[in-house]
User: Fold these one by one.
Assistant:
Number 1:
Amino acid sequence: MSTWRRVHVNLRKAHGLFPVSSRRVTQPNTWKYGHLTLCKSLSTSRPLRDDFFKDLEVQLAAMRQKALDALPGSDWSPLKMDRSLPPERADVVIVGGGVIGWSIAYWIKQKERLRGGVRVVVVEKDPTYSQASTVLSAGGIRQQFSLPENICLSIASAQFMKNINEHLHVLNEDPVDLQFNHSGYLFLANEEVAHIMEENYKTQRSFGAHVSLLSATQLKEKFPWINTDGVALASYGLENEGWFDPWTLLQAFKRKALSLGAEQSIGEVTDFKYTSNIATTAEGDQVVQRRIKSVKVQVNNSLEYQPIECAIVVNAAGALSGKLAATLGILLPVEPRKRYIYVLNCPDGPGLDTPFLIDYSGVWFRREGLGGNYIAGTSPEEALEPDTSDLEVDHQFFEEKVWPHLASRVPALEKLKVTSAWAGFYDYNTFDQNAVIGLHPSINNMFFATGFSGHGLQHSPAVGRAMAELIMEGNFTSIDLSNLGFRRIIQKEPMLERNIV
Amino acid sequence: MSAPFMSLYRCCQRSALLVVSRRSLSSVSPPSSVSPPSSVSPPSSVSPPSSVSPPPLHTRFLLYLTQCFYDVEMLQSWTFLQRWKRIQKRNTYYGYTQKNYGSDIAAAYYILSLKGGLRFVGQSEWFIADRRGKFNWAFLDHKDTPLEEVNMNYTDINYRGLDNLEEQKSLRTLSLRGCPEVNDWFLARLHMFEDSLEELDISHCPRITTGGLAALRNLKGLKRLDVSSLPGISSPGVVIILLEEMLPKCDVTANGYDHTLREES
């Protein structure tokens, strides 16, 4: 038998040497190719190789089917067929791979009891993050809020950033360098809003934020380049405030989460499959309770899609989270709002001690690098919100709305050059401009972490931890954020930020 | 050749390659710092200098081992964590001492147990811990005397340890030369001495960057500042000019920088 096999193999080798196919063997003019062709014709069966692999494929498919039948709850297979598709099953699906999404993924993986115990998939539409709010933000962090929840989130996030390399360190990789600028926020208030600022200051101090109040003369003494006309009071952050590089934070979260075993999948969530239950309340009202069974992920630029069976869905889609909730028929008051950031060059501008200045007119500016560059912007009025279909920059807006206020506040910025500009989306909560964090009351496995209205980046580490606590432990353990839940939207009780801007 | 010999041979072969190769093994995975699209990114005025020197041989050997054995990886991350915990523990808040002896003695005890040195207000005598951590317990006699000068050169002090010094309202000199754990967050916390501090030495601290130096603006009374040889500063020439501009009353010392204009080749 073995000798016969050897003959076969030899023939196959000979076959490979010459560009002859088996079809030619049957032709009458075989002889002109020489005796080697004659040898070839000795082989009467089809080439051995084809047979073997065809058999193997059939065998493997049968084996996979058998394993699937035997273990219906698992999509484990010895051979991964297609890695470009998302997995068929997951425990937690996080929709939105921005800084909030990756932070939640990191904290869930951090809290799991057993390595690989929880399967987390982060679905991101655009892996280049070309329109993502995370990377297009100004990157500031402040503690000067009026709601205790926001103040605590900021303090916890600053604490996280202090020890970022102990949290997000990946072995054999470079340490994370956030490029944090410890420059503080400076809020200016006029006569009308000075009392609000004083109350806010008291709240902030009581929660342990290091903020100081300055009168107009003290302000002039500290920052001689500010024109203090109309300023009654200023509050200035001393510690844990400043700005950092958003891209670095996003990549650090992503790198660490991936190293802990979270999975990334590129695609867009287009649909949900859910089951409904009708429950009756004590008063006899009928309430529909829903539970999401699977999430349909559409692969980019393709008709291919993959439903992910999952236990928990987290909506962290930022500016598009309202649209995502609408596919389930939920009214989530979060919509994209376009905000412009202008890069200014002014060699005579203020120096290294420039704070993140926020005027009571709503105009803000901060230093960018060391070469006399600054970035500035403001929020437009409610009625004049720009169109959100693209990220085009309106330069007229700077001339009319930003520059006059800026130049009157900082006279040195009268002569400046706008070197570039960009626009980004706020995940603007139209209800009360604050985050929506927690479970939806009628869909009992959909969590929200969205609607941050411009401070999502600075709160991301603490929000991720709070969400992971909610998912893994069932309630908030470190910071109680139950007031920021979905309930307030249904009960129409806004949690408004009493800030000057 | 039998299997164990073969694997040993391969191992040696690879280690030989390791010694020869100039590139660190940690850079095998693609770098994650992809900048966002240029049309939308703010222009960054400074780019950090890329360090090209390979890590020492024993680090490379450890890296090689981590890639082969999970145990080594576990061990390495464990030691990393332990090191961090040890530093945090050394910088813990001396609450018990503070309750029983007052905040000044607690601060002094903290400084001496980190092998630092200190001088009380109105005293000419220095209390300094020696190389092995031994110090003179006579500092206990100076109860309720605040500190005037503190020398923490080459110690493990970090921002957490500053809790112990929070009550020192008459601290005039603080020397932090070559402290490996002093970083930007530490400098941001120095605003607690804003009225009293006159001299500050932060030279040779490897983790200080430009972003932290901006936090020194709160130290209004500063008269002398030493920022020599900070490796984390990307463009020292500009930074020092801006620093002098920000602290006009202060005498800034900045040695150990190469200010010569290098020609682009």
Number 2:
Amino acid sequence: MVNKSDIKKNGESVDRDGFGPSTVQDEVVLELKNLQTHFTTKWGTVKACDGVSYAVKKGETLGVVGESGSGKSVTALSIMRLIQSPPGMIAGGEVILNGRNILELSEKEMTKVRGGEISMILQDPMQALNPVFDINNQVGEAIGIHQKVKGKTRWNKVVDALRKVRIPAPEMRARDYPHQLSGGMRQRVVGAIGISSNPSVIIADEPTTSLDVTIQAAYLRLLKQIQSETGAAIIFITHDFGIVAKMCDRVAVMYAGRIVEMADVREIFNNPLHEYTKALIGSVTKLEEKTGRLPQIEGQPPLLYNLPPGDAFAPRSPLKYDEKDALIRPELVEVEQDHFVQLSRCSVADFDKYKDKVSY
Amino acid sequence: MTTEEKKDYSKVGSAVGCSNDGDPIIQVRNIRKWYQVNKSIPIFGKVDWLKAVDDVSFDVPAGKTIGLVGESGCGKTTTAKMVLGLENPSTDGETEVGEIFFQGENVNDLTAAGKREMRRSVQAVFQDPWSSLNPRMRVNTIISEPLEINTTMTKKERDVRAGDLLAEVGLNPYQGNLYPHEFSGGQRQRIGIARALALNPKLIVLDEPVSALDVSIRAQIMNLLVDLQNEHDLAYILIAHNLATVRYMCHRTAVMYLGVVQEYGDTEEIFAHPTHLYTNALISAALPSHPDIERDEIVLPGEVVSPVNPPAGDVFMTRTPLPVRKNHKYTKERPPLIEVGKDHYVVETPWSTVTGHDLSEFRLSVDQEMK
């Protein structure tokens, strides 16, 4: 199936999966600076998103990877300002979208941004769509709010949006109800709502987990195509390194509410530094070859209201370490060009190589 | 537990790609499950049949894993339900079409004691660990429920056994006093596995056991399943749509489409030389494990068609471009499985690499897909 000739050398401009050359441009559209989202619970304050910083460029796909409870979805909801308050609150940091901090906008202005400049594609297409309204109604709602059109114009825009996501016979499908569509088609409708207002950032929260492999492949291809047409930046939230390998330009690995490693997708796969990243990549079953016993990460993700004081990954790290090193709170540092790692003696095997970059 | 006697497999019918080697626990021969869609008696017109499973045969040897792969609606779960006895194979008027054999004995001819043994020996683990455990029962009660029904153990013995089982699946015995909601997804799946192991089964049906779990937890559960298999000589029927999972766990694989097995045989052989167009398409759509791996994606036109009244001949016909459909030998009857390699069988179609067909013409570009 896949032989050596399929694997091309690093660094060449590769036309991956026939998507065409890279769509990444230099203009930063969305930047998170030290974003903190806390929840007040009866067990104490949960720091679900604890100082997350990243930037997404125009046309770029950033993969945010981590286990359940690592804070990847909360970060996305904080960008959309959809955190329910109480119990949640955005405790600090900035979210800069096209040059302005959207955390300072009023709720009225935010309504225009949400679904306009930033849109979100949710995980479960059956829950994201309302079963009692037809497709026209649901796609048209977003178009009506953001583009202030109605009647015939709105209908035409709905049909256009459905055509953009490659739904066959969009004029007929627009009159259907969600239950009349297959899973893949439903997910395309959710995508149509997302792209209908030409957003500059699309947040895709595990949009393909409930789909079959063939449908999944078609949907990922569609997202890439939409991206190359509109130049939107995509933040792809997933726990699957297979999707990362196929879709993403850059990867941020999250653990316990913080980014532990962030780099270009090839750098992450070829030269992972943090033990957590290594373990996540290693635990993926390979289709290309018969794998021996899978390496596995021992233990469970930590409870966020009861985090270890310093390096949250230390208890699961396979490395030998000193107890007092685990108490040091590690910093995210740039060890190579565009390669950020949360440097800790407990979870980075090459710590000594980079130890002059930190003060501990 | 059971006496080791030589099983008699002489009653089992023969089928392509199947043999009586390796002490099969379950042998499935030409079973079908058709559901009648329109309930009222049709005076005019014909009855519509949903052919969920149509003429499926395979063996499950002791200590081996057989994988059933395919997209949603291909009949893999229905097949497993029939093996578990949750569904009966469809009848053809009076007699059942096809047979299921448990250790060489037709399940319909089993004595009461034989039926009990079969129910003890064949267990299941389900996909969703959030809905397969009763939220109002303690874990110990969940695990020892099969023991209570099937054995004469006392309450104390059952609790000890439940503790042993929890330890075997990597949980702490004291966690037996907790309720399911106090566990994470991976731990719940371990509880489900412990429950399935309670009666020392010979075969466990695994219906998508890892697809609801995080990738990092998947590795733990798959390793656990492999370890348990080696330790207890368990046989598994693994239902999955993730091909990488199948390649990691299965010894033999059956690729199904619309209730019909399209390609069947040794897993390594199938992944090394995928022959049927559908198998190639599934493999090409699977996610890569490294960004530098590129695959030519085979895009099949359309989606899985409805299993109501599938084509009379080759069921795969509707997923291929029109020109290929002409000169097809099998338009009225199902194409047979033919042997194409060592322990590797595929249905006889024009769209397989064996018949000299160049599959590259199916490597459609995205624009073509839209037409």
Number 3:
Amino acid sequence: MVNCLTMIPEIGHFALIIAFCLAGLLALLPMIGLYHKNDVWMQAARPIALGQCFFILLSFMCLLYAFIHNDFSVAYVAGNSNAALPIFYKISAIWGGHEGSLLLWILIFSGWVFAVNVCSHQLPLVFVAKVFAVLGMIGFGFLLFLLTTSNPFARLLPNYSMDGNDLNPLLQDPGLIFHPPLLYMGYVGFSVPFAFAISVLWGNEQNMPWAKWMRPWVLSAFAFLTIGIALGSFWAYYELGWGGWWFWDPVENASFMPWLVSIALIHSLMVSDKRQLFQGWTLLLSIIVFVLSLLGTFLVRSGILTSVHAFATDPRRGIFLLEFLLVVAGSALLLYAIKGNKFSNPRKIDLFSREAMILFSTFLLIGGGASVLLGTIFPLIYDALTSQKISVGFPYFNAVFIPFMIPVLILIPLGPLSQWGPNSLKSMATKTGSLGALSIAFAFCVSLFSANPFSWGVSLGLGLGMWITLGTANFALIKIQKQGSIKRVSLGAWGMIFAHFGMAVLVIGITIVSNNEIEKEVEININQSVKLHDVEVVFKNLNTIEGPNYIGHKGHFQLEKNGQTISDLYPEKRIFVVQGSKMTETAIDPGLWRDIYIALADKLEKGKWSARIYYKPLVRWIWLGALLMAVGGFLAALGRRNTSKW
Amino acid sequence: MKKSKEEAKDAYIFTQPKNKDLFHKIIHEFRCTVCQNQNISDSMAPLAVDLRQEIYYRVLSNQSEKEITDFVTSRYGEFILYRPPFHEDTYFLWGAPFAIFLLSMVIFTKYLK
Amino acid sequence: MKYILPFAFFIIISGFLWKSIDRNPQELPSVLIGKSVPHFNLATVEDPKRSVNQAIFKDRVTVLNVWASWCRSCKVEHETWLELTRQYKLFLVGLNYHDDLKEANLWLKTAGNPYQVTLLDEKGRLGMDLGVYGTPETFVLDKKGIIRYRHVGLVDFSVWNNTVWPLIQSLEAEGSSEK
């Protein structure tokens, strides 16, 4: 007897196949329409795109159904879920493994395609047709990959077990619910500016305001990616047990590189839009940003680099993804090689102009990104050339990346406060001299009068943070004055203000927590304490605990300040009975100005425990800064497209 | 009256701050070959525990960073170093970012009047 | 003409990525290949009062197997060694790594002892000097006591037939052809 349960995954699989065919049509029909100058065929792109989105959504819903209803006849469900799993983790388990996360990728891709469909009615048909063709090709390739090597609907019939393997305990966390979808919204979103850029390069029309059209897509993808990365960092911070928030891990770098390039793209777009300059560079950046997204997808899933993110890897998948990357990136970059010279710069620029400052910043951002790329793949290059293994870790990335960013940070407030075209050095100095002096004074005062020994690093970070803050605030005031009221200031300008201010907050947070955090590694017994700054951490009690699939210990620590108890923290050490793996549940006392962070390491003799206790000043400013940047991105994306001046 | 609690003992005791700093620097810059995604400061693997002890004793007997690094790399290879060494095979790695910086300045000047 | 550069860079990078697909980034080659086995002076599991040093490796080809009673994979590999020592004439030395003497002895008594001698490395000192990072590990030493090969993980029959046994045979021949 065929019951509903057994059919749903098949419907899901079939829907994917239909979507695959539609993607193929989407890639072909508008192109044929273009060639034959047939409007009808070009307009067919829209309904086909809608159809593709519908069937992918249907497919996703089928997998969702299988997870919610514990259909362990589907191999992917059996491998990643369990009847006892709480409902929201069952849902997020959809993207807990390779196949499902690819389905999420393609679902989000469909979402962006849908958005392009809705938001492109005023664009010329010929242009839109090409955009859809490119999106169709990307969808086609990706669905081919899914269907041939990573089918989420593979069945275990007829013999399947009554229960599943369970979701990896590390993933049973709210972080899994939000981090991958938001990250993909960013990554995948860059396919839209990519498609636009290909469309521009491919075409013969000059004087299309394509930079204006691309802007909201890049800005919103950037904003999503910023949140996605920040969430990943925050999740690692409280989950991994040792208080780190960035490891320069290959997978982290894979998301960081597109982020850097997208910032360069946003600014280069502005110049291309308003001054008709750097158009070739902007188009190249639009291609590079998506190529890096795909490269990231490849690096994470091919297993060729040692990383924290353990996706189940299979060389076949690696090969397919690399072939996909080669086709997409290769053809795009070849197109640029052939057509790029049509977009060469019409005139040269002045040294002290806003254009020059932006251009140079984009070079620095790309340079920094290229260094991160080099460091990330160097172990592969080294192995290929010498057959030996080498590691490239945080000491390299910190040493190499920070010097690129310092000039960028200096330029940030100068851009808005300067004019398009030539600026005299004198006028720049008048506008910003006092702000610069104040920033330097602030930095040295704080550093000299703080409890910690004087540090050049802290002074530099604080100085730059204050410089950006003052410059941005100054700009905001000028703007409000000019427009008459806060409401009259454009969303685009507010977006920039928030984003730049967010960067300042981020820089200060990173500077202070990296230089001034306190780490105490102790062997502690009941009633013993550790002093961190003005807080005393007392180990009060220890209990054994039992969970649904683990046993362990739970400690009770009390935080005291001036004799008063301010907080109770309960860090745990869990042993998962099935696999025997140990996990540390950290306990954090959060605060805007500092986190107190406790992690239990191991049980020692005579009731002692080895533990790590951290005082982390301003650590939350890191994610707060990122959030502000994302808000800025969204505000600017929503802004009126036709702004003639800031 | 202020109650003062007994202070917990540090896991690794140093009398000289420079030794403490050296110890921390080294254990954060060595990769745990067992877990591979943690440094030997954070890793709970028995090998990491052993190496921490070994490095602790060597720091206490005033061995230099180079001596300690050589001790470990002669057994586990350069893979264990998060800071890639600087020798003829890695000149490119360390030099390229600087070259990129110079190159970007050169290209920038080509855009200028 | 400069517009071709991005494409060129991309192709070069892809070349390295392509070459790397089959390699396993977790596998560490031993840096001790070609070097003498480290000096040591350890008791044996079979007779804790007796101690041995690296001289036992002289003038014969040795297979050195690092194991522990707490290591699950080692227990699985154990069967293989019992069978191999039955089939072939081997000088198989065990290195009992970071283990409890009682547990190790108990295991050898109940499951069988394929080793000619088992070194007792309770603190893991010799293991560290050998660059051991994951049990089980197996080393092949030549007649001069030089390390010629290391295998990380289980030795099974295919590893034995394809790599280890042919190497042992060539090392045996090496010594005698020099005479």
Number 4:
Amino acid sequence: MTRVAVLGAGPAGLAAAEAALAAGAQVTVLDEGARPGGQFWRHRPGLTDPRMQHGVRRFEQLQSALAGAVVHSGAAVWSVELREPGERGGAVVLRAAVGPADGARREAVVVEADALVIATGAHDLALPIPGWTLPGVTTAGAAQALAKRDGVSVGRRTLVAGAGPFLLPVAQSLALVGSTVVGVHEASRIGALAGGWLPKPWQLLGKSAELAQYAGALARHRIPYRIGSGVVRVLGDERVEGAVVAQLDADWRPRPGTERVIECDAVALGHGFTPRLEAAVMLGCEVTGDRRGRFVVVDDGQRTTQPRVFAAGEVTGIGGADAALAEGAIAGYRAAGLAQDDERLHAALRVRDRMRRFARRLETAHGIRPGWTAWLDDDTIICRCEAVAKRAIVERAEVPLRAMRLATRAGLGPCQARTCGRAVEAIVAEARVSATGVTAAGQAVDGSDSAAPGGGDLGFERRPLLAPVRLGELGGADRPTCGEN
Amino acid sequence: MSGARGATAAHGSSGAHGSSGAHGSVEILVEGETVAGRAGQTIAGVLLGSGRVAWRGAQQGERGVFCGIGVCHDCLVTVNGVEGVRACQREAVHGDRVEREVRG
């Protein structure tokens, strides 16, 4: 019987597990959360408002399918590796510490499998803003998680800002947990929005109904929605007391003279999403893209460039839960050994192809524009962990990325550049361009640096451990390893 | 690691009103002060629900929740003597002792 391991129990991972089980595989799911559902399904009956939860019936189906699998929740998977053909045991080996988050005495778990589905998802991408380290500034995803999972609001008067349709459910959730939402500020201007969303509207059937539902919620809660607008400064002494919003041009540069102050005690920022690529990178799966977005390369069957490894969901492109469900199903069937033309894949393949078009629309309409760096001051903290200001990064922009990091400590704190990596890379690229007088911010600027041994521009994506674990826990596995570098 | 200052109080009262161990509620000790939350909430959820927004010392000012999903490590606390626990990831257990941390 084929053994399939699934890393991540959000929509993609759960769909993969369900499909692999249906195809007769023996399935093990590992997930860092206290319970399955990922960032999308967080509702807690009796604790949080069911109106914040979407696709509950599908979640219930997936949960009941999981009864046939081995599920490790609370699993900090810190290592994945491939065995050479001919070696004893499974082709893929995963090592995890399982127990309460960051606990001291978690159980060491080693999972061996014939195939792996990487469904590690994405986290929010919040761009740095002067004042963004003040208590009360959170990511939009934090506001959403705290509302959906904990039933609490990040503030009493919350301003939501950034880019993309995700800001809408966040605003709705905040209103449902009792916050006044003083505004939703979408950075993209009408041109980009129209370019992304207007062509071929029939493709958006279903999605437009969802957006209309959120628009209705905003209207009911009297939440103002502004486009071409963003937070350019957060005000406050020891915590958030207000925010400066300004009109943004098509490149997200603030328009001088348009600034105004909005009183609030919380700011929820979400400018997009960053896929969690660590496991794919550790396994040597090819990653494509540049500092504006890197994703795992997969074929039509969601297979990565490593034959035993599949990937599904946000790690292959930011497309939302419906795309993740379809990709997960395809990956699960294929990992369990079904052929690409097996009829059980047909429905999921159709949905996935439709959702890939949706992902392209998202990027066209809401993708981060390069002018955002104009709202930074020289002393704005970029790396939150190590309190590294923009000035320090710009001063060392000419040296290779790795040397810059060691000199400034940018990206070397506990979050391992997961929060600031993309911003640091953008600031470095911009500084190099202005220093050399080159006008086009080409990828060669980044590509000249080889942060990744063996070539390829992986920037900050290569991390020695997949998840934070305590040193003592590394010894709990069958042999000590600290990853590949 | 634990500093002298308590967590920065935000708007309003700290809500230490839950009955001990009652169904649906948990009580944790935050810097020695009893704080009530609802069963199933994370430590970050309990702290925010009690009106706290910041509970960790950083190089420039205080920090609380930022990413809320275990990525940024801004919300670290010491729980029952174990340092470096992400408050947004750890579910609160009745009787947990939570102390602030300072990272400079």
